[in-house]
Specification:
Order of helices and strands: HEEEEEEHEEHHHEHHEEHH
Pfam family, one: HTH_Crp_2
Strand content: 15-25%
Strand order of the largest sheet: 1-8-3-6
Keywords: DNA-binding, Kinase, Transcription, Transcription regulation, Transferase
InterPro entries: cNMP-bd_dom, cNMP-bd_dom_sf, Env_Response_Regulators, HTH_CRP, RmlC-like_jellyroll, WH-like_DNA-bd_sf, WH_DNA-bd_sf
Protein name: cAMP-binding domain of CRP or a regulatory subunit of cAMP-dependent protein kinases
Radius of gyration: 19 Å
Distance between the termini: 24 Å
CATH class of the largest domain: Mainly Beta
GO molecular function, one term: DNA-binding transcription factor activity
CATH architecture of the largest domain: Sandwich
Helix content: 40-55%
Number of domains: 2
Largest sheet: 4 strands, antiparallel
CATH topology of the largest domain: Jelly Rolls
Number of helices: 9
CATH superfamily of the largest domain: Jelly Rolls
Length: 239
């Protein structure tokens, strides 16, 4: 569905029913340069954004400067909806990882579009449920798994949607960025990446990481978290 503004962006095509058209009708397009802060934690704004092109990162920062990376969002992803729903300050900082084009719309327009769309409410509920599942994974991993196992889970998460015997992640997060994702330090990630290389499971060349034995990585995760894991259940639901 498109309106007088023109053709619906491809990145919004996966939204359900008539919701995409309703959101696009009230959206403005904005651009962000790589490294630019799009939203800052604690800010009172309530705009909702959809990534049309590029990639952004969701992170938290302590007063001492410690970074906790929650996730990356690519084209088609939506962010900012929590503040639009509860009208509270932003809960995370969003930074452009590359040059981005975003669709931005007011909170009131977002809420109205969801309410008016036949599938909007169920879509939003499913989206929030997915976020709860993802946070449950993280809490479990941080409290129950060692650094090595947390890294295996994160690498498998980066391979989402990729099947077969191997997978290439490019550009791969730096060791410091991986450390910020799993609650450790860069040196620990470097050590554990060496373990994977010795096992013939991963090969890294600069910012390209190839998981040469994806089934073996999945088995390492399965051994760490149990036969039927929270991680696997959530991964299947996202697909």
């Amino acid at each position: 569905m498109a309106d007088a503004r023109g053709r619906l962006p491809e990145a919004m095509a996966a939204l359900p029913g008539d919701l995409a058209g309703r959101l696009w009708r009230d959206a403005a397009t904005v651009r962000a340069k790589a490294g630019q802060t799009v939203l800052e934690i604690g800010a009172p704004s309530t705009q909702v954004y959809i990534v049309l092109e590029g990639k952004v990162q969701v992170a938290l920062y302590s007063l001492g400067g410690h970074e906790v990376i929650l996730r990356d969002l690519a084209a088609g992803a939506l962010f900012g909806e929590l503040a639009a729903i509860d009208e509270r300050p932003r809960s995370a900082t969003i930074t452009a990882l590359s040059d981005c084009q975003l669709a931005s719309l007011p909170a009131s327009a977002f809420r109205a579009a969801v309410a008016e769309s036949s599938d909007g409410a169920l879509w939003l509920a499913a989206r929030l449920a997915m976020q709860i599942r993802s946070l449950t994974e993280k809490v479990f991993e941080l409290n129950a798994l060692r650094v090595r196992e947390r890294l295996h889970c994160e690498l498998l998460r980066l391979c989402e949607g990729l099947d077969g015997q191997d997978a290439t992640i490019e550009p791969c997060p730096t060791h410091a960025e991986l450390a910020a994702r799993i609650g450790t330090h860069r040196e620990a990630v470097t050590r554990e990446m060496g373990f994977l290389a010795q096992r013939g499971i991963a090969v890294q060349r600069a910012r390209q990481l190839t998981i040469t034995d994806l089934p073996a990585l999945r088995q390492l995760v399965r051994d760490a978290v149990g036969g039927i894991s929270i991680f696997e259940d959530a991964d299947r639901d996202r697909r």
